[in-house]
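Entry
Fold in token form

___
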Amino acid sequence: MSDEKIKQAAEQEAPEAQEAPQEIDLSEEELEALCRERVCPGCNVMQEADDLRLRALADTENVKKRLARETEELRKYAGESVLADLLPVLDNLDLALEHAKGLEACADFVTGVEMTRKIFLDTLERHGLAPVRGEQGGEFDPNLHEAVGMACQEGVPDGCIAQQVQRGYSLKGRLLRPAKVMVNKTES
């Protein structure tokens, strides 16, 4: 069979195969306008879809910002539990120094403990640990101090700190342990 006869036979057997889809070149705006005209000219489905898309984008941005904030906070306070566990060591060094004050026989021992405490405290401070103020006569602040009792001290105003029982500490501005204090109350 010749090529022309093959073409004619193919055309007779499949007339629908001859109709190839026409390509239309439209811009994005023309396609949107055509879609609005043909699909749903009276409704606002497209606007609702755009609103949903914008809300989803806003939610995604909010999640990204929250995760970044949480990650930064996690980095900032990652050592909090370790530092909190080391505070009793610092307390015991303070107690050893307090009890050894004035003992001439322990002078070299006291010097060694003071040096150890200073190095230990300097190391903790490099990691963001700071002591909470709780001096005698200072103002009592329930956000920084824990009142463990009342005392009667001459020369100290009512409601102020009469004595610090245990030092408090903060980590990079966040209270790690409140200072335990006795609050002054003059007898009435």
